[in-house]
Specification:
Length: 336
């Protein structure tokens, strides 16, 4: 038997409870994992609220991330005792996710953890950190680096934004962090932000082009914020877009693209190919500042996740939320 958060629907109402389940209840998959840590992300909050279009089927175990130890595998790449991580892949939407003491997933979703990353650190990074690193890699593929000028990060006090600020500052970028919470200024400066930009400056409809300010951007917000960033990017710069908390619309013009040769690059971490996941985790193993990562993290227990999911939708959560699952002892020793 194992414990999990179970979302159930009755008509239009979605409820959650801590359920006692049997291993035979798990969905099909190649790899069974004893989950040691998970996370709470914005999408988990939407799932708990019953937001339209998030969860495809019920009952559902939420949790878009998990890290733990393999207990059984029919995939030759993984063996009992392997320390692994799974991010995205529609977990918590179409497939049972990480808010559970046990999980079973297809082998192609699984990534071996680098030797120097334990399961708690992996979930401090989580999908948010994976997304942030994919954004950094996208800027690098565009040929951009710290010598080209400053970079802006929107939604900077959130999960993706916090890790992006830290990663970019560690690489030598001068980072401007956009936030709507001035009380988080010291937190962001401690992560390496050189400047703090009030979100209010970025929520008015921009002119087609504004004064050139940044060489690059990582946008986790979308909407008017992204439009304002694009209008302020220097000639030949690029913006990586990875979020839509500010809306799905993009009220801009073609001016930044055809007059300043600005590139808009999309990044997602849900169905990103396996080789790019591996590449990102290899970089995260070397590029993440562990002290800064620790300053972003709040740890909660499995039973606390429904309440945290409610708070994350209200913008009351800073940085990363790690769920210490405290699962059943399997007797499987993690392989070194």
């Amino acid at each position: 038997m194992f414990r999990a958060i179970l979302l159930e629907r009755d008509g239009d109402a979605v409820s959650s409870r801590v359920a006692e389940l049997h291993e035979t209840d798990l969905p099909d998959g190649d790899v069974t994992i004893e989950v040691h840590h998970s996370t709470v992300n914005y999408k988990d909050g939407l799932a708990h609220r019953g937001a339209h279009g998030v969860v495809d089927r019920y009952p559902m175990v939420p949790g878009v991330d998990l890290a733990g130890v393999v207990t059984a595998s029919s995939d030759s790449r993984y063996h009992p005792g392997d320390r692994v991580v799974v991010n995205g892949c529609r977990m918590g939407e179409r497939h049972w996710g990480g808010h559970s003491e046990l999980a079973r997933v297809p082998g192609d979703w699984v990534v071996m953890l680098p030797e120097n990353i334990d399961t708690a650190t992996a979930m401090a990074i989580g999908t948010a950190g994976l997304t942030a690193m994919l954004c950094v890699l996208a800027l690098e593929r565009q040929g951009l680096g710290p010598d080209d000028g400053p970079v802006v990060v929107t939604g900077a006090s959130g999960g993706v934004g916090s890790v992006a600020v830290s990663l970019l500052a560690t690489q030598g970028w001068s980072v401007d962090a956009v936030t709507g919470r001035p009380e988080e200024a010291d937190y962001l400066r401690n992560l390496g932000a050189a400047g703090i930009v009030d979100r209010g400056e970025m929520t008015e409809p921009p002119r087609p082009l504004e004064s050139q300010r940044w060489a690059a951007g990582v946008d986790a917000v979308g909407g008017l914020t992204l439009a304002n960033v694009l209008a302020r990017i220097r000639y030949g710069g690029a913006v990586v877009a990875c979020g839509n908390a500010g809306g799905m619309d993009l009220p801009t013009s073609v001016a930044p693209f055809i007059l300043r040769a600005v590139s808009l690059i999309g990044v997602e971490s849900v169905v990103v190919p396996h080789d790019r996941r591996v590449q990102a985790w290899e970089r995260l193993a070397t590029d993440v500042d562990r002290d800064q990562l620790g300053s972003m993290v709040t740890t909660v227990g499995l039973d606390e996740t429904p309440e945290v999911c409610a708070r994350i939708l209200e913008g009351q959560v800073r940085g990363r939320i790690v769920v210490d699952i405290g699962g059943p002892a399997s007797g499987v020793t993690p392989r070194q």
